[in-house]
Design brief:
This protein has 296 residues and is mainly α. Among the domains are: 93 residues, Arc Repressor Mutant, subunit A (Orthogonal Bundle); 111 residues, Serine Threonine Protein Phosphatase 5, Tetratricopeptide repeat (Alpha Horseshoe). Helix content is 51%, strand content 7%. It contains 10 helices and 6 strands, in the order E-E-E-H-E-H-H-E-E-H-H-H-H-H-H-H. Strands 1-2-3 form a 3-stranded antiparallel β-sheet, with no helix packed on it. A 3-stranded antiparallel β-sheet has the order 4-6-5. It is elongated, with a radius of gyration of 23 Å. The termini are far apart. This is DNA-binding SARP family transcriptional activator. Belongs to the AfsR/DnrI/RedD regulatory family. It comes from Catenuloplanes indicus. Keywords: DNA-binding, Transcription, Transcription regulation.
Amino acid sequence: MTVEPQDPSHPGTRFAVLGPVRAWVGGAELDLGSPQQRGIMAMLAVREGAMVTTDEMIAGMWGDAPPRTALTTMRTYICRQRAMIERAGAGNDVRIDSASGGYALCLPRDALDLSHFTRHDARGAIAARHADWRTVTEEKSAALRLCHGQPLAGLPGPYAHIQRVRLEQQIMAARLELLHARVNLGQHREVLPELIALAAGHPLREDVQALLMTTLYAAGRVAEALMQYQRARRRIVDELGVEPSISLRQAHQRILVDDPSLAGAPLPATAPAHRRPPARPLPHRVVRRSHRRLPR
């Protein structure tokens, strides 16, 4: 067993899903068993104390074609996990309760890394609505420090896949919001290496491409910003057969006319979950902007 630094608010008890699924009780890491057994534990943990029915567990682990032994296997996993928790000496702080038709994992408050992530992420979103970029930077950075690779890494089953995609989207949104906040604090050159790598890894994400373009523009690298648009447009047209969205085209047009308000523009969204509130311009770079839309 490995020993993990203790959380002062809940000494020695911690569950992690924002990376490989791991758990510590009394500062010692628990052996969560096989990937399928870890998957059952992850289902319970992600629900944060809410009941998960046996039907949900079976469908989440085996999909539409579970084996005939699925219910017995799942109950065996639950028994093993309860025995493991009891051996760790968790007492009543960590337990798997039986409910009508299902199970719930009870943890100390904030023992789950996802709870911490959600709280920091929400605080950052509130700060962004008030254009408090320093607080946005602090809160989003705190949220992202909790992430250690791919969420629910290595777990089988459709439930783990769906949750992995959802959490990856939330983490990506937090990364973009952090970078956008740093740009608004005047840290254009510092964020460019990460943005360039992010744009190369996500060539069809228009919010990433737009943020890279506006950051290049704010850093005085206007020609590179225009070239980035051309690269992004070619990729979108070649792979999707459509022109870029109106938001990406507007960002390009503003660069062409040297619009000084562009540096503080909000991120264009590829989905409602990524929509950004209006942002103030960079204080040292631009004057106050008008929020009027450009003509289409």
